[in-house]
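Notes, p. 3: input format for complexes.
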Amino acid sequence: MNFHDSEKVAGSLVSQGYRQVRTVEEADLIFYNTCSIRDKAEQKVFHRLSDFKALQKQGKKFAVIGCVAQQEGERIFERAPHVSLVAGSASYRNLPEMLVQIGRGERATGLDDRNTEETFETEFTARTNPHRGYITIIEGCDKFCAYCVVPYTRGRERSRTSESVLEEARRIADSGLTEIQLLGQNVNSYLDPMGKRSFAELLAEVGQVKGIRRVRFTTSHPRHFSRDIVEAIDSVPTLCDHVHLPVQSGSSRVLDAMAREYTREQYLERVSWIRATKNRTISMTTDVIVGFPGETLAEFEETMTLLEEVQFDGIFSFKYSPRPNTPALTMENAISEDEKTRRLAVLNERQREIQRANYHRHVGQVMEAMVEGFQPARNQVSGRTSQNKPLNFTIPCGAEIPKIGRYVQVRVTKSHPNSLVGELCPDGEAVPSAACTIA
Ligand code: SAM
Ligand code: SF4
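Output follows (439 residues plus iron/sulfur cluster):
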C-alpha cells in the first residue's frame, strides 16, 4: 500500500507541475514515505533523516509522510529541524496546499484528517510497476486489532465509489497494463458510497474490463470474507487463483485477545469455501504472528496444527512487535525475544516443508506465466502464475526473450519451496482467456 501511495503522491504532484527525478541528489524536495507496522520504525526514520541533514545546505527541503509521520507528528520537527512537512496518509489530498506553504518558507503539517470521509482521489498516478496497476479501493481501518497501529495512523475506513474504481481500471487497461491489484487494509469491508456494488460485484466487474487479464486483491479480513468472493473467482476467469487471508493465530483464545473477532473454526469454514470451488484451484497464503502476549506453548501448537490443516502456499510470519498506543502494549505475560525467535523458526521450518510438497505438485504441469523480467546472469525469464507463484523459465536457444507483461505457457520441470522452474513451451504464447473479450 505504501508503494502505491508513493505512486499516487508522485503522480498528483507531477500533475501540479512538479518533476519527478531519480536520485536524492537531483531533487529540490525529498519525500520520505514511512511505515510503522513493526520494529523500531521511528528509530530507522530518524537515522535516515539525519543522513539527509547534510543535504540541507544545498537548499533541499524534506517531507516525511506515512505512518511514522502520523504517529510522531510535530516531534519530527523537534528531532529533525531540517524537515519542513509532516503528513499522514489521510491528508495526502491536501499536499499541493502544504507545498505552497513550505514554498513560502513555513512549516506544514497534515495530521488532523483521520476522521475524514474523503479518499485520496487522483487521476494522475506515477505508475512504476511495469506490469501491474494498483488501485486503492478502501483506505484506513476500523478493526483495531489489539497489536496494530494502522487504525491510529491511517484513520477510519472510507471507500471510493465503485464507478471511480472502474474508471481507474479502464484507464489502466488503456495504458496497456493487463494486471490490476485492488488494495485496502481490508478490501472486503469495501462499502460503495453510492451503494451500487458489493466488493464481490466490483471485483467481478474489474475482471471484465476490456484488456484486463489478471485481477488480484489484498488484504482480506476473515471476519468479512464472504462466500460471494469465492463464487466470483470461480466464475470470472480473469480473477486470479489466489486468496491472501491473514489468520494471525490458530488459537481461538489468542484470536479473541487480539480482537480479531473470528474463531479458528470460523477461519477454517472460510478455507472450506475456498477449497470447494468447481472450476478453479485457489492458492491460499496467510499472515501469522508468534509470541503475542500470553501465547502459551499449547496455543502456539494450535497455530502449527492450523498450518498442517490448511496447507498454505505461503506465509508472512512475524514476531509480535509491541507498537505505541495499542492495547497489546500493556498486556501481561509478554513472551521473551528469544522465545519468539524460537517459535518463529519452528513455524517457518514446518511451513517450508509444506511449501516444498505443495510446489512439487506442479512439476510436469503446463502453467500460464506473466513475464516480469529477465535475469541475464542465469539466462532465465522471471514470471508469475495466476496463483501468485514465481515461475522462472528458460527459453530455447536463439529464441526471442518474451517482453515484460506478456503471457506465456511454461512447462514446470523443477520446484523449490518458494518458486517453480520451467521451460517455455514451443509456441508458448498464451491464448487470451474468454473473459478478456467481455466488453
Ligand atoms: N489488514 C490486514 C489484516 O487484518 O490481516 C493486515 C494488514 S497489516 C499491515 C500486515 C500484517 O502485519 C498483519 O497481518 C500482521 O500479521 C502483521 N502485524 C501487524 N501489526 C503487527 C505487530 N504489532 N507485530 C507483528 N506483526 C504485526
Ligand atoms: Fe491492523 Fe487489524 Fe486493521 Fe489489519 S484489520 S490493518 S491487522 S487493525
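Residues 430-439 have pLDDT under 50 and may be disordered.
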